[in-house]
Design goal:
The longest helix is centred in the middle third of the chain and has 24 residues. The protein has one domain: Nucleotidyltransferase, domain 5 (2-Layer Sandwich). The radius of gyration is 19 Å and the shape is globular. Helix 4 links the parallel strand 4 and strand 5. By secondary structure, it is an alpha+beta fold. The strands form three sheets. A three-stranded antiparallel sheet has the order 1-2-3. The protein has a two-stranded parallel ribbon with strand order 4-5. It has a two-stranded antiparallel sheet with strand order 6-7.
Length: about 140
């Protein structure tokens, strides 16, 4: 679309500032600086949340498909609890504007945003490692 190369840090900043997982986002925009892949020269563009939605649509749909797949294989007793209590979003994707709304529409299940979505993954991993002797993890092709 723009033929503009940007770095990982810039991409993450765009995702945080104007990233949108829902087609009718907030209409935010920001200026982005990068290298024009055609001319090789520095260039600045204005990028919108609607464009970020288009750019992230495929990975977001992959995440939603993965969630649906897990829900389809969930035992009935657990599925009942999930329908009653909902899903708690964690990680960076949870911070995308409109992701909660989209996921609720796609699954029909209540969606809740964790208090500190970015720390949840690290804290959860830490708890597993603290209790590794009580955990039956499958790593690669062996059990831990």
């Amino acid at each position: 679309m723009y033929n503009l190369m940007i770095g990982e840090r810039s991409a993450e900043e765009i995702k945080i500032q104007i990233g949108s997982a829902y087609p009718e986002g907030e209409g935010k925009s920001m200026e982005i600086r990068g290298r024009d892949l055609v001319t090789g020269l520095p260039r600045t563009i204005t990028f919108t949340s609607a464009e970020s939605f288009q750019a992230m649509a495929e990975p977001i749909n992959n995440v939603i498909d993965g969630i649906k797949s897990v829900l389809e294989r969930t035992p009935p007793e657990l599925a009942s609890d999930i329908v009653d209590k909902g899903i708690v979003l964690t990680g960076g994707a949870a911070l995308l504007d409109g992701f909660e709304k989209l996921l609720k529409e796609e699954t029909g299940i209540p969606i809740h945003l964790a208090e500190d979505p970015l720390s949840c993954v690290v804290l959860g991993t830490g708890k597993i490692l603290e209790n590794i002797d009580k955990t039956n993890l499958i790593v690669g092709s062996r059990s831990v």
